């Protein structure tokens, strides 16, 4: 029953559990039947009736209108104009007032925000903005930036600006970019932390030219002002020369004169420095790294400026194999899960899983549909066979090395979404037939395969020092000078036109580091790390090498196996490794 009776000292107290619902249902029925309505809302010539008592309960705007002596409060049926949004949006907001239920869609969310902003319904407005944030992407972030500024959403504003900064080379290719105002473009060009990718300031210059070409007549007068915000000294000469060929430049020679003057006087102008981070993803918790050994789902991010590690959203799966790569400004991870099988096959691998990390929303998204079936298969096989992957920063191609097989996967971008083509098989190398746990890097579009374990038999496996280069232009393999010592399960990076081989394992875990000069085809040792490391990865940032985690020993040059949380960085100018802030979680086989 809806009535609850409680005995008191003076009698009884009756409570109706459904009292609030009865009132709401009663008002809804009155509104639906247009009974006892005492206010008329006009929206684009459509009349919508309501009860002022219901309006002022939900809306501070109406509360002020009807309670502080404004003219509407004394009228028997005031007529109020609300043309800021569509009649459908107004009706849905009124339905929310009378029922407590509001449906928000991509088609209605902007109108609802406009209305809730006007009517001072802050809670509903905030929820609408939270919904809008979920659809933020490179195709709409510039418009959302404007919208967030107009209707005072700090959170959406910050996220939209962050996305513009982080994916600027993709955003300049969108339709929305062509329609931004000169003032908005000027604000973007003033950002010193734009992420520009491999083409650097060329992408900024090309973006401004593309914006000009969309409406030359209206924009040519402010084009010179926009160019003042481009770091022209860092734009390549061929890209500048392309501008000279444009017809509008023939009629505005003063612009080219201004460009030449700016390039000659801004020689000390520093390049842009985007905010970059290191991500460590998954890995093993203990020194045992078998398929079913304790693994991690946690992900950490390192901030270079603050020298601090913070945890971000965890991986959706407990992965046995993880590879992470940055393609067109997006972070992808590939992994597969292992489960127990039978006596003939102790471990069974699942199909590969692919995820994309949205660093604006801090979520991992399913990215399986981004990969063509053959690409998914060769990556999966590579992980199972302890092969290696490498990404070419210039072309955004993925190269996969799995025993003798080598594959190339192209990537394309459409409206900011990355897709990966079918895998293309390249010439194989028989010398790599029983190799695993090697390192792969790209240097000037040439692929280098370094070291690894060579399997002679099931019981005979030993590290090697061999180096092979695949000449992508000639489509052939070339044997290069071997490293100074054998290495497997090590990390290799490219910095300043040199290839660095860091740490690893042969008969024991290694501290040693050696550097390869592709011009002279020679290796030489540089300063060793402070700690022996295998099963780890390195990254390069601002001409320094960062090494994190991995397997090591409990004490200097020996002791029990230990998984590290430490991070150290190599500075080539002083040839020295120094410790940085450790990760929050010790881990090995981590991918950055």
TrEMBL record:
Alphabetical UniProt keywords: Kelch repeat, Repeat
Keyword field contains Transferase: no
Classification via Pfam families: BACK, BTB, Kelch_1
PROSITE patterns registered for this protein in UniProt: BTB
SUPFAM superfamilies named in the record: Galactose oxidase, central domain, Kelch motif, POZ domain
Keyword Nucleotide-binding: no
Domain BTB intervals: 37-106
Listed name of the protein: BTB domain-containing protein
Organism: Mytilus galloprovincialis
């Amino acid at each position: 029953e809806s009535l609850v009776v409680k005995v008191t000292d003076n009698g009884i107290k009756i409570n109706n559990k459904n009292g609030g619902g009865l009132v709401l249902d009663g008002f809804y029925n009155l509104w639906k039947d247009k009974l006892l309505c005492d206010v008329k809302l006009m929206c684009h010539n459509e009349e919508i009736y309501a009860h002022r008592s219901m309006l002022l309960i939900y809306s501070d705007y109406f509360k002020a209108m009807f309670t502080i002596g404004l003219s509407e409060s004394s009228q028997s049926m005031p007529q109020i104009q609300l043309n800021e949004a569509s009649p459908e949006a107004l009706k849905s907001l009124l339905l929310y007032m009378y029922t407590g239920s509001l449906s928000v869609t991509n088609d209605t969310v902007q109108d609802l925000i406009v209305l809730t902003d006007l009517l001072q319904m802050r809670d509903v407005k905030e929820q609408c903005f939270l919904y809008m944030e979920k659809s933020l992407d490179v195709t709409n972030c510039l418009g959302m930036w404007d919208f967030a500024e107009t209707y005072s959403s700090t959170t959406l504003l910050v996220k939209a600006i962050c996305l513009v900064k982080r994916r600027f080379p993709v955003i300049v290719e969108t339709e929305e970019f062509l329609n931004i105002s000169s003032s908005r473009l000027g604000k973007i060009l003033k950002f010193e932390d734009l992420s520009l990718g491999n083409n650097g300031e060329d992408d900024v210059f090309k973006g401004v030219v593309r914006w000009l070409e969309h409406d030359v007549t209206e924009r040519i007068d402010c084009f010179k002002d926009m160019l003042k915000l481009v770091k022209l000294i860092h734009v390549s000469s061929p890209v500048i020369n392309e501008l000279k060929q444009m017809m509008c430049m023939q009629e505005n020679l003063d612009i080219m004169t201004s460009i030449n003057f700016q390039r000659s006087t801004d020689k000390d102008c520093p390049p842009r420095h985007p905010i970059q981070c290191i991500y460590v993803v998954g890995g093993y918790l203990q020194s045992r790294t078998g398929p079913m050994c304790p693994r991690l789902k946690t992900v950490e991010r390192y901030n270079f400026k603050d020298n601090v590690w913070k945890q971000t959203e965890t991986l959706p799966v407990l992965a046995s194999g993880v590879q992470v790569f940055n393609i067109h400004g997006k972070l992808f991870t590939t992994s597969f899960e292992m489960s127990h099988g039978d006596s003939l096959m102790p471990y069974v691998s699942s199909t590969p899983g692919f995820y994309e990390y949205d660093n604006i929303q801090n979520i991992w998204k399913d990215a399986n549909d981004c990969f063509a079936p053959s690409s998914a298969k060769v990556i999966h096989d590579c992980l199972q066979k302890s092969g290696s992957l490498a990404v070419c920063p210039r072309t955004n191609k993925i190269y996969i090395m799995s025993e003798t097989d080598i594959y190339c996967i192209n990537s394309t971008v459409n409206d900011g979404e990355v897709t990966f083509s079918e895998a293309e098989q390249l010439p194989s190398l028989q010398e790599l037939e029983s190799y695993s746990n090697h390192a792969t890097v790209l240097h000037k579009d040439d692929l280098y395969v370094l070291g690894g374990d060579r399997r002679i038999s099931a019981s005979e496996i030993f590290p090697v020092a061999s180096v092979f280069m695949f000449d992508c232009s000639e489509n052939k393999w070339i044997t290069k000078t071997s490293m100074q010592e054998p290495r497997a399960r090590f990390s290799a990076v490219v910095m300043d036109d040199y290839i660095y081989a860091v740490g690893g394992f042969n008969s024991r875990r290694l501290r040693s580091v050696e550097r390869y000069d592709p011009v002279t085809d020679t290796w030489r040792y540089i300063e060793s790390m402070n700690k022996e490391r295998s099963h780890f990865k390195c990254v390069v940032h601002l001409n320094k090498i960062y090494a994190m985690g991995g397997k090591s020993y409990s004490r200097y040059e020996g002791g029990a196996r230990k998984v590290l949380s430490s991070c150290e960085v190599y500075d080539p100018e002083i040839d020295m490794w120094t410790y940085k802030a450790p990760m929050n979680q010790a881990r090995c086989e981590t991918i950055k």
